[in-house]
């Protein structure tokens, strides 16, 4: 049926050995259809060099390697990219995989192509690894910098990734999952932000195919089974709409499209429905010549069918950040079945399919083709990300920002300033987010807000179309710490944190000093005993501070635990003033039978000051691991008990009991970890209760080869599950890696180590 367009051809298996000459002919035919110049000498030259450079190389599929850069170039031609980009697509692997250098490319093709190839080559060396948060975030920083330098670099990389996804079946199963996860996490959202839905949709569906093959093939089968009745329904809608457009004198093209699998899957998950309960698997689109015709068509559609309240979106008046424009409305058909209609001009459709690539301006010269400034200005989200990179030194915070707020993955709301300027914010944003989007000074001086002329609370959730006015006062004392719990945008969080760190430094110092003193008082420690220059200098050196006030400030804003600082200084004080404990005195205090039964090789990798060949044991309350800061406690009859310095039991010792503390540290070789030496670790996992949670958690340990010694779980009234796990592990580095993997398990809220 011609009215229904089902584009599923890219999921078919590729021909075993595609003919490079036929692919090259296809590339040239596509290029000539849209490019204003008939001169293809640059493309011919690039193909010739790439073919020679990759001679003898083959992909895992068995095809000649040149097939890959040719397919990448064809994808770029489908996006109607300039010749320089297509030439770079043909050459994108020659520097990395052959003896050819970037200098050779610059000599043959000029600066523009060389810059693009160099950018893609550097990005290819960035290895995504979901297990290493720091490394992943650093790679993303570099990726966005490359995009800012020339957006065509990421467009080539997207084309490269798309062809790799199309041929992913030739990779080992574990590699398929890794690449598909990376694609869904990173490349698909970038394609969406660039507005290239043609690539985004296919990347999503291919990722689903390898991450959830059961879901993918089940959807494919069920949709195919009921295709005829659904096509009949949509065909009737298309016919009715087309006739009404003709009767109204509006020149329009009307067709129906199958929604892609990943979109259907997300709707099923988010709405908790089965496929049979989702009726709008098809979307009807109307293409017209002008914006005026868009709104005229909308009026006709709303006369024909009953619109569902709250399901109309005007992306023409308020375009998305990726330049997408269209009218969306959901209606009830005559049979009572809901369906969606999208109305747009042909130019809007081109932008929806190709995004930033649709706005590329060609130049006849070979020295570069760049979008005009107006188009570059539409990439405001990219500039915002670059600003975050400067504000955030912490890679984890940066990565969380990308995956959480305005950035790559969330929906948006559109609101207005009193002057009528549009502001785009993350879904769920508050007037505080709005204030900081205007200027940090506005946010810092904010005391209230009006929405649509009415006073609202600062935690009011902004709705599309709201007109927001921020009330400020020069007498404002600045933002509240509570604001960090209600804002949604990374920009607001970053600016608030900056204010507390810089503007309130004096307050943080006072707060830190008071917290320090209060801790000492509650533990029976005399502050004056600790405030020796040499003790302070050792603490500053340990934590990287240049002045003591900076230590107080860190304690004041929560960056440093007061207990750790006090305990370290108390250790130093006792070293100098407490009675020296000798080997003989300790040995005298130890029960010989206990000592013999618990004595461990090399004291378990522990070095205790002033003591040699004395038994040590690891406390069960805090389960110290190599890499933790530790301290020894001389017990009666049970040797020396090793604790973490932040152990609750150590922190709560009286001043008299603290006299039994003794310095201890890990042997340097022990910190690195030994295959033969493991230690008991215990963590608490907090997660929203769901079926299969414990299976998913256990899988992490099984895959890592870590033995679980104990597991207990209980659910709260709020259905939050607490899972306490005890397991054998080598050091804190391995523990951190394991915790990072566990944090990515679905529904996990938080993880903490047992601390006594």
Overall pLDDT level: 77
Helix content: 40-55%
Q: Supply the helix-strand structural class.
A: alpha+beta
Beta-strand content: 15-25%
Distance between the termini: 69 Å
Largest sheet: 6 strands, mixed
Q: What is the architecture of the largest domain at the second tier of CATH?
A: Orthogonal Bundle
Give the tally of structural domains: 6
Quick rundown:
The chain has 756 residues and is an alpha+beta fold. 49% of the residues lie in helices and 16% in strands. The N terminus is likely disordered.
Please give a structural write-up:
This protein is an alpha+beta fold and about 750 residues long. The protein has 6 domains: about 5-210, Hypothetical protein af1432 (Orthogonal Bundle); about 225-355, 2-Layer Sandwich (Beta Polymerase, domain 2), CATH 3.30.460; about 380-490, Roll (Ubiquitin-like (UB roll)), CATH 3.10.20; about 505-575, no CATH class; about 585-670, no CATH class; about 680-755, 2-Layer Sandwich (Alpha-Beta Plaits). It is built from 33 helices and 20 strands. α3 runs antiparallel to α4 and α4 packs across α9 (about 150-165). It is globular, with a radius of gyration of 32 Å. The model is unreliable at about 1-15, about 130-135, about 360-380, about 390-400, about 405-410 and about 580-605 (pLDDT under 50).
């Amino acid at each position: 049926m011609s009215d229904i367009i089902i584009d599923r051809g890219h999921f078919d298996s590729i021909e075993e050995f595609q003919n490079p000459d036929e692919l090259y002919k296809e590339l040239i035919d596509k290029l000539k259809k849209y490019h204003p110049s008939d001169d293809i000498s640059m493309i011919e030259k690039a193909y010739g060099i790439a073919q020679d450079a990759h001679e003898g190389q083959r992909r895992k599929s068995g095809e000649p390697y040149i097939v890959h850069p040719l397919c990448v170039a064809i994808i770029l031609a489908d996006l109607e990219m300039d010749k320089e980009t297509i030439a770079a697509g043909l050459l994108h692997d020659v520097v990395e995989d052959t003896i050819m250098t970037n200098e050779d490319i610059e000599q043959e093709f000029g600066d523009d192509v060389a810059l693009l190839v160099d950018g893609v080559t550097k990005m290819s060396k960035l290895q995504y690894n979901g297990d290493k948060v720091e490394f992943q975030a650093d790679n993303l920083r570099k990726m966005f910098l490359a995009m800012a330098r020339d957006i065509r670099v990421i467009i080539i990389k997207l084309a490269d990734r798309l062809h790799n996804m199309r041929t992913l079946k030739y990779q080992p199963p574990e590699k398929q999952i890794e690449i598909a996860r990376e694609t869904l996490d990173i490349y698909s959202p970038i394609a969406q932000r660039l507005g290239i839905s043609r690539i985004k949709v296919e990347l999503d569906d291919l990722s689903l195919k390898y991450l959830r093959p059961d879901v993918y093939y089940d959807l494919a089968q069920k949709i195919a089974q009921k295709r005829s009745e659904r096509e009949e329904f949509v065909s009737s809608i298309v016919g009715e709409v087309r006739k009404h457009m003709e009767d109204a004198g509006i020149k329009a093209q009307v067709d129906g499209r199958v929604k892609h699998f990943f979109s259907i899957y997300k709707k099923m998950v988010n709405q908790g429905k089965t496929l049979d309960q989702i009726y709008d698997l098809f979307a009807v689109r109307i293409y017209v010549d002008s914006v005026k015709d868009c709104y005229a068509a909308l009026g006709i559609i709303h006369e024909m069918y009953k619109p569902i309240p709250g399901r109309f979106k005007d992306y023409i008046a308020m375009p998305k950040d990726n330049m997408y424009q269209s009218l969306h409305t959901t209606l009830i058909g005559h049979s009572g079945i809901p369906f969606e209609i999208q109305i747009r001009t042909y130019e809007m459709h081109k932008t929806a399919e190709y995004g930033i690539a649709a706005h590329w301006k060609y130049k006849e010269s070979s020295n570069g083709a760049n979008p005009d400034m107006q188009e570059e200005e539409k990439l405001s989200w990219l500039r915002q990300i670059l600003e975050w990179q400067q504000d955030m030194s912490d890679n984890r915070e940066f990565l969380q920002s990308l995956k959480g707020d305005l950035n790559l993955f969330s929906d948006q709301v559109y609101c207005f300033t009193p002057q009528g300027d549009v502001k785009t914010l993350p879904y769920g944003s508050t007037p505080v987010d709005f204030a900081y989007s205007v200027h940090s000074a506005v946010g810092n001086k904010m005391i209230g807000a009006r929405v649509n002329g009415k006073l609202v609370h600062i935690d009011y959730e902004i709705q599309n179309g709201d007109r927001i006015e921020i009330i400020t006062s020069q007498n404002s004392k600045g933002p509240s710490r509570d604001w960090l719990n209600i804002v949604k945008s990374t920009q607001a969080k970053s600016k608030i944190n900056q204010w507390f760190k810089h503007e309130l430094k004096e307050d943080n110092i006072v707060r830190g000093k008071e917290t320090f003193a209060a801790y000492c008082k509650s533990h029976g420690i005399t502050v004056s005993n600790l405030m020796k220059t040499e003790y302070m200098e050792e603490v500053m050196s340990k934590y990287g501070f240049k002045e003591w006030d900076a230590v107080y400030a860190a304690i004041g804003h929560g960056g440093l635990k007061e207990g750790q600082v006090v305990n370290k200084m108390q250790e130093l004080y006792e070293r100098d003033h407490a009675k020296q404990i000798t080997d003989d005195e300790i040995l005298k205090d130890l029960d010989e039978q206990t000592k013999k039964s618990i004595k461990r090789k090399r004291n378990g990798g522990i070095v205790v000051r002033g003591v040699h060949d004395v038994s040590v044991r690891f406390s069960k309350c805090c389960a110290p691991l190599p890499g933790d800061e530790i301290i020894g406690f001389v017990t009666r009859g049970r040797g020396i008990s090793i604790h973490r310095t932040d152990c609750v039991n150590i922190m709560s010792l009286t001043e008299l009991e603290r006299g039994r503390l003794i310095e201890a540290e890990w042997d340097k070789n022990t910190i690195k970890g030994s295959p033969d030496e493991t230690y008991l670790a215990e963590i608490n996992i907090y997660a929203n209760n769901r079926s299969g949670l414990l299976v998913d958690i256990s899988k992490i340990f099984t895959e890592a080869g870590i033995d679980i010694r104990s597991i207990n779980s209980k659910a709260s009234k709020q259905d939050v599950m607490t899972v306490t796990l005890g397991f054998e592990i080598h050091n804190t580095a391995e523990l951190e890696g394991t915790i990072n993997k566990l944090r990515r398990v679905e529904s996990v809220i938080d993880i903490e180590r047992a601390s006594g």
